[in-house]
Amino acid sequence: MKILLDLTPQQIANELGPLNLPQYKAMQVYKWLIKGKTFDDMSDVDKTTRALLKEKYIDQPCVVVKEVVSKDGTRKFLLRLFDGNIIESVLMSYKYGNTVCVSTQAGCRMGCVFCASALSGLARNLSAGEILGQVIVANLVAECAKTAGSRGASAATGGLGKERSVTNVVLMGSGEPFDNYQNVVSFLKLANDKAGLNISLRNISLSTCGLVKEMKKFADEGLPVNLTISLHSPFDDKRAEIMPIAKKFKVNEVVGAARDYFNKTGRRVIFEYCLIEGKNDTQKDAEKLAELLRGMSAHVNLIRLNSVKECSIAATADKDAKQFLRLLEDRGVSVTMRRSMGADIGGACGQLRIKFGGQNTPASSDK
């Protein structure tokens, strides 16, 4: 069975042509899908056509099997895919709007020591529609939350365009986006499609652990998203202890690809730096990091490590983390400490999925 949300609106119209659906009717189907509705919800599509659609296609690729809500309002979703694989996404509310953090793979094969996503390895890549489906779920949930106090949650329809409740998307969930390159690029184009969610590419951030070849290729795609790079150490040997991918790509190669991205897109690059006690949080580390980024249009996002009991590392103490930030500021580095959200609900990538019981759950019988 095909996932319709893998396709552009025009491709959906072409796909549904053999079902004798005129283009305008196919667009009605697309609008329902992008609002988070199932074939059964499509009141302006006749029952015979809906039955045919259910035989051949998957409507919503991500089905919520569990939702947990943090005391700070962060919502984390466990989502079941058509084959039974389980993924996570997170909805976070800020003053400027709602941000959804999506996964690009079921699991991950990068093996970063602080990340729960890699503990069970990579199950498979997600399709473009499965990544988009996470945004659709979050948008519908945020819409329900917004309308519950006035018209009631049942009135929420998952607004599109300017009516969207989700304003920003970050590809920072489970998986390495550039390890699923083509599907991620397709997702970005789908999310940006004016007929659908119409999310500005400048409101989308993509996080990579530093796959240099793909970073350089992406710089030529003409998709000016915010590129975020997981650096975590300015020293090759230390970085390799934290991130196995560093054995393949040296720090200077990664930073060089980041400079190339800025030169081609004009988008400032963000470097993520997860502070790990005794690993990367010394004055020497701060001095080397400042030296590495000197003269570059970049920002450092320091991250307080979320505790993952399966990972044998510890977060840098708060006072030492603040000292590390001051050391960078004193050396002219643009730097902030990322606000920690959802820690009480297993906010780190992969934590809730592991707690739920791994990557697989029985596939839904109606898919």
Key features?
elongated, alpha/beta, TIM Barrel, DNA polymerase, domain 1, ten-stranded mixed sheet, 14 strands, disordered C terminus, two-stranded parallel ribbon, 367 residues, single chain
Walk me through what this model shows.
The chain has helices at residues 9-16, 23-34, 47-56, 128-147, 181-192, 212-218, 236-242, 251-265, 283-293, 318-330, 351-356, and strands at residues 2-3, 57-58, 63-69, 75-80, 86-94, 97-101, 105-107, 122-125, 166-171, 204-208, 226-230, 269-275, 298-304, 335-337. 33% of the residues lie in helices and 19% in strands. The chain has 11 helices and 14 strands. Mean pLDDT is 89; it is low at 151-155 and 359-367. The strands form 3 sheets. The chain has a 10-stranded mixed β-sheet. Strands 1-2 form a two-stranded parallel sheet. It has 367 residues and is α/β, with parallel strands linked by helices. The chain has 2 domains: 2-58, DNA polymerase, domain 1 (Orthogonal Bundle), CATH 1.10.150.530; 63-356, TIM Barrel, CATH 3.20.20.70. Helix 4 crosses helix 5 (181-192), helix 6 packs parallel to helix 8 (251-265) and helix 9 (283-293) packs parallel to helix 10.
How would you briefly describe this protein structure?
The chain is an alpha/beta fold. The protein is built from eleven helices and 14 strands.
- What is the CATH architecture term of the largest domain? Alpha-Beta Barrel
Major pleated sheet = 10 strands, mixed
Mean pLDDT: 89
In total, how many beta strands?
14
Strand order of the largest sheet: 3-4-5-6-9-10-11-12-13-14
Overall body shape: elongated
Spans of at least 5 consecutive residues whose pLDDT stays below 50 are 151-155, 359-367
